[in-house]
Design a protein that fits this description.
Elements (H helix, E strand, L loop, with lengths): L24 H7 L23 E11 L7 E10 L10 E5 H14 L14 H5 L5 H19 L8 H8 L3 H10 L10 H4 L16 H32 L9 H18 L4 H78 L10 H13 L4 H81 L6
Helix pairs in contact: 8-10, 9-10, 10-12
Length: 468
Amino acid sequence: MLGDDEDVFDSVTWESEATAPVYDAHDAQHSGPGFRQSTTDTNEGPHDPKWEGYLITSVKDPVKELAETKDAYVSYLVQARTNLPVFSTPNPSARRRFQDFVFLRDHLVRDFPACVVPPLPDKHRLEYITGDRFSPEFMERRRLDLHRFLQRVSRHPTLQRSTLVRAFLESTEWHVHMHQHIAHPPGPEPSPGIIDNISDTLLNAFARVRKPDERFMDMREGVDKFEEGLTVSERLYNRIRSRSSDGNPESGEDLTADYHDLAVAVQGLGFLESGITDQLNHFSNTLLEFSALLRHTTQTTTDPLLVHLHSLLSYSHANRAVLKLRDQKQLDFEELSDYLSGVTAERDRLAAVISGHAGSTGLGLGAYLKDRVDAIRGADDDRSRVEKMRKLDIKIKELQDAVTTAHETSDAFSDETLREQSIFQFAKEAEMKEMLGNLADGQIEFYKAAMEEWERIIPIIQRIRVDV
């Protein structure tokens, strides 16, 4: 579980007129946590996120299209309010289907590999097999998942300004933009480099960074603790849900069903006690109301909490993937550097042999065996060695350029990852505040309603007179 000092949410503030961009009151009430914009903050560090404005999005109104055909699908109304200069209107809107969200997410991952792109809900659900994917309950759950995905994208200072997000939110010819984006991606296509030509014996999936950066080690440790806390919380609330309202009275752990059974028993007792039948019926009705209140709280508070916990865990996995990719960039640099050292040593060895010095002496068993094999093959003459040196010189030049590029890429990716961690930390804290706030509001509403129900029955019970 997270320690008391791991995640402090006091720093997560709502928009205020002093710090937020100017927009109307309707925007302000929907801004929520996570839309803080640091366009005028002069104390920003080199790795702090920088916003150019706000983007507030919503996904609503799921509609079944082509309802009577085999090509039926669900479309969602996507709306936004923004002051970003890349948008042509401050209130873009469009209807998009789930596949459009998938395209957006896949290409954001490809176009912005250093960004933490939020995940989408899994498409492979039981509802697709059973044919219930058009049920109102499923469409509403998916709408909420897509709403949360788009909110996370709009809270990201880089993703919110991308041309693909702009087209997704306001284009009336989205399919044209999709084809254009595939044909002409915003960045250069990755070309096979020297790192791709190194054998699998040199680069393997189990290699580890030899000089780990403590900053990223601390980040991974923080991610581990955060995910552990989410996993434990999810497990505990699943247990709470199953014991309070799992919908299976035969399990013996359904508190909602127990209150319902108790109400039936009290009502039956009322028929036997003619003098207090009315009071017992009122008490039975209160038990039924409380049972319904428990079920309502499960549906409106506990279930959304469980969905949000699982979604936040998937979001953290996406953040972990970026940290892993950063390690891979550093590993590429380290492996290329080692490869360059080996090729340089081989070139120096051949130069020593040509100049009359011992070729493999002191260079280890491998160099000695290589000399013996070359001697057997008749390739140990000076002419062959000179040709090998020429080829090695070319390879060394290529490797030097590749090492320089890999080093610059690794450093740039590390800097971008530091910014991404600041963005993710801010988004995580905002979502935690929102999630826990909704939980607290739901519990307050439940206990207020429960108190009203029980206080209403007290005067009725007090009217019962017992003759001694």
